[in-house]
Amino acid sequence: MPQLIKYLLLLICLGFGIVSASSDYSEQLLLRPLHPSSLLASFNFQSNASWESFEQQNFRYFPRSLGQILQFANTRELHLRFSLGRWDAENWGARPWGGAREGGTGVELWAWVEADTDEEADGRWLTLTNALSGLFCASLNFIDSTRTTRPVMSFQPSNDHSNATLANLHLLHGTLPREVVCTENLTPFLKLLPCKGKAGISSLLDGHKLFDASWQSMSIDVRPICPEGPGDCQIQITQTIDMVLDIQRSKRPRDNPIPRPVPEHELRCDTTKPYHSGDTCYPLDIAQDENWSMTEIFGHAMKGSCPLMDEGATPVCINVPHARDVFTSGGAVERKDESGFMRCFELAAEQDFEVVLPSQDLPERAPLEQPLLYAERSFTGYGQERGGVQAILTNPSTTEAVDFVYMESLPWFMKVYLHTLKAKINGVDGDVIQEMYYRPAQDRKRGTQLEIRMRIPQNSTVVLNYDFEKAILRYTEYPPDANRGFDIAAAVITIGNVSIRTTSLLLSLPTPDFSMPYNVIILTSTVMALAFGMVFNLLVRRFVGADEAEQWDIRAIRLRLLAQLRTIIGRFKKEQKVVKTE
Amino acid sequence: MALNNQDASSPTAMREPGEDSTASVHLDADAPKGAVVAATKRKEPPPETLGSIHLRTTVILSFWAIIVFFGLPLWWQTTAIYRADLPLDEMMDWDKGVACRPVFPLRISIEASSLQEHEAQHLLRTTQHALDDLNDFSAHHLRLQLAQPANASTAADGSTTGGLEDEVALTIKVLPGPEQASELQSYSPVLDIYYTPNQVPSSSSSSSPLATYIANQLRTIFAEEQAMIAHLLSTSSAPPERSPKAPPPEVAEALAKWTSRSMKYSPTYHLTFSLFTPTATPSSWDIETAIEEHMKPLLDTLSSISNFTIDTQVQLYASPGVSGALLKKEDLSGFINAAEWPLSPSIGGAPTINFILYAGDMEVEGGGRSWLIPQWGGVVVQANVTDLRPTMLIFSNQLLALLGAPEAGSLPLRLMTLIRVRSAGLLLKASGTLGSLARLTRALPSISIPQSVAEGVYTTIEHLRKACDGLGGKEALRNARIAEEAAEKAFFEKSMVGQVYFPDEHKVAVYLPLLGPIGVPLVMGLLKDFKAWKKRRSAI
User: Fold this and answer.
1) What is the count of structural domains for chain B?
2) What is the ipTM of this complex?
3) In this predicted model, what pLDDT tens digit does every residue of B17-67 receive, in sequence order?
4) In terms of DSSP H, where are the helices of B87-208?
5) Residue at B517 is within a domain
6) Which of A351, A525, B177, B276 has its CA 20 to 30 A from that of B264?
7) Which residues of B touch A526 (CB under 8 A)?
8) A51 lies in a domain?
9) Is B171 in the same domain as B283?
């Protein structure tokens, strides 16, 4: 826990400390090598605008397109997330920014909208999602009432809303777990930045690298801040991009990306293995001492620093032990901090900046923070009708219990049986649920919302179980590629300021054959025609003895047809003869 | 199904024995023995009772009765497309320009306090004559009147009241002076005419140099407006005899340019002022005060026509779509880097007019530093952004041009012309939309027409009528705007589009499986019974 606090403090220094600085714009890149052979790159861009200029729509660092949308939709606070991949908490430790800057797989959006009534809030939410959908080239307009929830315990607004505003704020939350985040979302994201990817750390962002990452998350947060008290308020926009890059994969040349075996002379073998010999090798884990450079990882060097920042700002930091060799290009000033694991660089304005970390054997590693909670979630059950959800939540701490809120927002076609909700602690039924908020689904109108406040004692594992029934959808409600299944949004776990999201799930529903309507028409018609034909014939036909009935002799018909054919042929021949005689 | 073979009511079963024998005789010629034997072995069924024949007929007829009197209407009802009644002829009339004859009667008040009453009357008459002789365009008509003495005092100090402004397009003040001259006041619609004492017309002469002079002056002032309206009418589908003679080519070209560059009319416009910097500096500009000082007064004046909302932005590292320090004329269209510059239109629904200040060192070939992009906005290239006054003046001129105001004349006159031209344009546009809707309705019989479309059409016609009656005033502009909105809404009604693309193949696929198997026994039953009935009749 002390480690965690230290880490959080560090983040606060990096992320929020610059708020009090005089400049209205700041940016920061933190590079942190992760085990095994990965690199976490955290980009953070922050700018402030005075509330008056925002109201008058005089935009300088705050992006105009986003500002207009927020004003038009009366949105006072906005959080938008685009995420891809899975954070490997076992190997990578705690999440960057305490998980506060990430969302579930796909797109996640929550906002505090100012409105007098719920209906008005819904209308403005619709405006907001539609406008953002256009701005970010994402399907945000598909966040309709079935995907929108109003969380009660999980999210809290910023502290700096005025009391009058706070009374009319409505929190709305929507997710699109199916959305595939890609380059078309990054381009509008970069356009919002004052330096636009032309200078500063944003020049390192490249769709090819970002969406090749093992895990990535883009976030936009807009919130009011009042550093000097309620009279002097500002609006703050924070944009972050976090990505975990596979160093080996990134170093492959772009024109030849096929992985190849390491040449024999570069192979480092574990010589302690009994089978080690000239032709057998157990490769050593070389991750920690991986050599890499900015150019290799991001494709090119950084194009100077963004000149909008304060003098003396340090836009690039690397979280490695002080003993590690770090070489930089000229003009950069290195600043090491006291913790022993962090160094930052002050850059020259117009000069390209390059960082090279050579291969090095070091016993020491930058400490990895342990997450407060490990969470995983999966489906149980079998068949096309019944299913279940199991969430395994582990508190790794040996000393402290952990209090948190577990939130699920499920689609309406997952019909949850709440009475089956069971929590087992370390394998036995236990009373860990303290409070629960449940809003049942309504078919085709809204989804299930479930928020559970729990407390897990130290060193314990809680298994949360509940069953659900799969609804059968209407023909037109299936998406294209219906057999792939339906993505179920990630569960959100909120522990104070820290948040954790589980992976999203893939639910397969009974899928019809999509030529069904026509088959149904044909079958029904046939049955109806059969029934009708029988009844009709019974009514209009006359019944006579078997010997009195007209005989249908197939031979007679054949003979008659043959005779007719012969007469026709005969006539034809005769005509021909006539022609010849003429 | 074996019952089918015992069908007694079939026409062949009802054949007379004689007929049967002819058939067998015919067959005898080439058929083997067995077949003939089988045919002759058949025993005739006992004759049917009249009751059972009637019963069968009744059954068949009742089935058909149900189908015709219940099935068909039900099918008709359930598959009918709702088509609200539209006044198609009236709509076409509007489109053809038959329903409304756009006339712009402009009242011009003459204020001649220095002249005697009868002299003034005479001047009025002769000037009106001279005007009528000069005017070849009946839709745009200048009517002179003498100013009321009460109004004269208010007009004298140059500030006309609002009510008067609505009525009178221009006030002419006839003043004695050292020599003949005319002066258009800049900030009020007043034309000062100076005359020398010997020019006062004698009551006997039918024309006077002063009257001709005034008429010529008036004509010069309103020439541009007249040309604009004439151009609008000639490009609409109005009958050609209404339009005046074609303007000279250079005027026609100017008018075509004017049409292509002016924005679509809207009650609200959104103005976006953007500073684009190719590098990191300058990163700020003093836009708030510049707008407050140089833009707000103009916008306040324009508020009688449209409202304006404003936003501003600064964008760094913005490279234009073309490179090089000297911009060629053909480069200008590519200057705006639409892919990278964040110039998305405002989301409020009001059309956005963009004004761009590019803080780079560039010059247009031939010396200019600013240009106008039709229906979009204006661009100024200026490296130094400390003094925004010249830029704002350029932007003001560009705004007026984009709104479609005429180029010459004093500001109040230009604005009033703008109102008249805009209402004429909206009127013609709404009429054209009505015509298109009528043609669409006629061309696509399978399209559904919801009630809301009919309501929109009636609203449009009502407001068009009002606008047409009062053309020239602000009320007409308001009515024309409502009409145009209603017409567009009716034309682009969403539910009308869906039905058009429902192909006939689908209908066949849905109907055939049911109607085929049911229809065949029904029709065959009816035919057989009909034949049997005919046979019975011929037998009697």
Assistant:
1) 3
2) 0.80
3) 444 433 344 444 444 444 444 445 667 778 888 888 888 899 999 999 999
4) 88-96, 117-134, 149-156, 162-167
5) no
6) B276
7) 513, 517
8) yes
9) no
